[in-house]
Amino acid sequence: MKNSRVRTLFISDVHLGCRYARVEPLLDLLNRHDPQFVYIVGDFIDGWRLRKRWHWEPIYNAILSRLFELSEAGSIIRYAPGNHDDFLREIRYNFGFVEIADEFIHHSPNGRRFLVTHGDKFDQVETKAKWLSVLGSFAYDSLCWFNQKVNDWRRFFKLRGLPLAAMVKKRVKAAVTFVSDFETNLVSHARDLDCQGVVCGHIHTPAMFQRDDVMYCNTGDWIENATALVEYEDGRLEIIDMQHEQTDIAIEDSSEFVLKQGEILRKMLIGAEPAATAGV
């Protein structure tokens, strides 16, 4: 990873609550930088899975604590919810240190305007057949479980792991992109807002390319990938991959404030019943 000072971090599709989320490299990334802006570009919290089964690990609180720490130090934290955390759109709960909106306009230091939004509203499968999207999400959980078992077996015989879940998800997301014309519609919306770029997530495919007069940037995800989009002080953009970075993190006790926010979140999603112990 380059040593240039990072002005802005864009992260999406962390899916806190999904047992297959790669949260250690994310915490490592947050610990490495003190950016001026942090954009959480949707699906940070996986409300679909948490409603079905409460799964909240100590490192999730550590990630929230780090974001709170950045906010206290002056970083501006902005959160554009996605389809998995759309409950935040309805209640506008901001955790006390986060700005929440469906979309933001980010101003780069070289004068460009970037639309920042998750992107699910430009996915016709999500908007017209949400039941299919929800069904696919839980089928994907089963695929991840199977993939983990296969790779445990392969590691026993000293063989390399196979990204079966990522391969299937990539094909499905490619089909969704084709059907909904996802990228074209997002770029068109950014152009209508007089933006020269768009930053999104949703389809779990990191990408950065120019589409005519608008730059399309997708941050990727933290399940199949471990990628984020960074903006440097001079306005340069880069997709960074944390999959192969050396992760050395320490999880300290979370503040009372963060623990309280986690409890409020649990009550919002599943009610006031005692939370089940998180499994690994």
From TrEMBL:
One of its GO terms (cellular component) is membrane. One of its GO terms (molecular function) is UDP-2,3-diacylglucosamine hydrolase activity. One of its GO terms (biological process) is lipid A biosynthetic process. Pfam families: Metallophos (PF00149). InterPro entries: Calcineurin-like_PHP, LpxH-like, Metallo-depent_PP-like. Gene3D superfamilies: 3.60.21.10. SUPFAM superfamilies: Metallo-dependent phosphatases. Signal peptide: none annotated. Residues 7-206 form the Calcineurin-like phosphoesterase domain. Keywords: Cell inner membrane, Cell membrane, Manganese, Membrane, Metal-binding. This is UDP-2,3-diacylglucosamine diphosphatase. It comes from Blastopirellula marina. The lineage of its organism: Bacteria, Pseudomonadati, Planctomycetota, Planctomycetia, Pirellulales.
